[in-house]
């Protein structure tokens, strides 16, 4: 006869985050992670340049920083401010923000970037999803803990 021993495994919980920490932390994390992805894309031979109406534009690293920080900063700030009145906005914001981030990959793919740049820039959109979800969930946990 064989007996199985039950093992318990604890899953680390997300920390409760104050609203300012969540917003600033998410923006900093997104910028740092996306700069790492940009660096890998550069090493893979990506030029991060595109042509629009005959004008060549370089989108990195300044564009990476700007497009990582500004939309996330605006969206998260709105969500955490509304959460003072309605905490449900945090989950709605996580879903809507994630869908917007993933949906805008289409604009990157349709631009005339080289393959390495397209892959890296698309991955940067994906990187925003867990950053956004973890930060907003951290705020929700902070509110629930009160």
Order of helices and strands: HEEHHHH
Overall strand count: 2
Structural class: mainly alpha
Main β-sheet description: 2 strands, antiparallel
Number of helices: 5
Query: What separation lies between the terminal Cα atoms?
Result: 50 Å
Strand order of the largest sheet: 1-2
Arithmetic mean pLDDT: 92
Strand percentage lies at 5-15%
Task: Name the overall outline.
Answer: globular
> Which regions contain 5 or more consecutive residues with pLDDT less than 50?
none
Number of domains: 1
User: Helix proportion of residues, in percent?
Assistant: 55-70%
Rounded radius of gyration (Å): 19 Å
Protein name: DUF6069 family protein
Keywords: Membrane, Transmembrane, Transmembrane helix
Pfam family, one: DUF6069
Task: Describe the protein's topology.
Layout: H1 19-43, E1 49-52, E2 55-58, H2 62-82, H3 89-103, H4 105-110, H5 115-144
Helix pairs in contact: 1-2, 1-5, 2-3, 2-5, 3-5
